[in-house]
Please model this.
Amino acid sequence: MTSTGEQRRPATPAPAPGSPALAPGDIRDRRDVETLVDSFYRRVLADPLIGPLFTEVARVDWPAHLRIMADFWESSLLTPGVYRRNALRAHRDLHAEHPLRHEHFDRWLELWTATVRRTYVGPVADRAVTRARTVAGALAQNTIGGGPSPSAAVANGPVPVRIEPRPRP
Ligand code: HEM
Model:
């Protein structure tokens, strides 16, 4: 992880003529995404409910996982196509090893939302929150199945979305 911390970035300088307007303090580039992902996983690791799922159940290869997560969020928020993997499979495997519960997804969302809100402000940051809610809903649906969906972090509840399972080889 980097040592970028979770401080709000200073005001963004005026964009060059012809470039799109960017909200000051918003997520603007890969570096911002990496800062967000690093800060988020610092919180995850310190969390007694979901931290052990990463360290004791999945035994995550952190440099690889942080890079993959940055790809995922860069694709979701800034540049489509950077992430070309199957996010569902990792969570199905995890669920098979240690059953996931809605409270795990709720906590994940709570930590993600808090990290985004503390670090960035603007429309892209807003998308990071709503997109996480959507994907968490889909992942929960495809692992745990029906029943109440992730709710604690966001009052509106999840937005249904299809995450296409790729055929297993
Ligand atoms: C209960 C909540 C969650 C838990 C415990 C969890 C845990 C994990 C674990 C253990 C991995 C595998 C890491 C590795 O082995 O390197 C993983 C991968 C991943 N997770 Fe989650 N996750 C959760 C929710 C989410 C949500 C809500 C999102 C998206 C908004 C997400 C996105 C991803 C992505 C993109 C990967 C990489 C998959 C790949 O390409 O291999 N996760 N997660």
The chain has a mean pLDDT of 83. Residues 30-143 form a domain with the Globin-like fold (CATH 1.10.490.10). The first helix runs from residue 30 to 46. Residues 50, 53-54, 58, 60-61, 65, 68-69, 72, 85, 87, 90-91, 94, 100, 104-105, 108, 132, 135-136, 139 surround protoporphyrin IX containing FE (CB under 6 Å).
